[in-house]
Model the fold of this input.
Amino acid sequence: MTEQVQENPESGNTMLLLIAVVIVIAGFVGFYYLDSQPIWLRWLLVLFALVGAAAVASKSALGKDVWRFIQSARIELRKVVWPTKKDTTNVTIVVFVAVVVLGLFFWGLDALLATLTKWLTTRSA
Done:
């Protein structure tokens, strides 16, 4: 009789992510533990810990999914048609004019309501 052992791929992914978290925590613990060292060296340790954790996490299924998402996002970003300088200038002018017009409108409305409120509250009964 032969036994076949089936590995659970989910446990491997969880283990990789757990190792990545431990690496990040170790980097930050090292930052505070090595407080007698120069600050640049301590930040370098944190940076290496983050890069190492990202490398370990990228081997998991979640990391591969994130990498595929980043690649597809870059492809979609190449499809974006950016506005020309003339379009940007025209839209900016329209926005400024709208802000000024609406600012004047609300200033006038506020002045009208303030005057009306003052008239109603100072009137003798």
Summary: Helices lie at 9-33, 39-57, 61-78, 85-122. Residues 85-122 form the longest helix (38 residues). The mean pLDDT is 90.
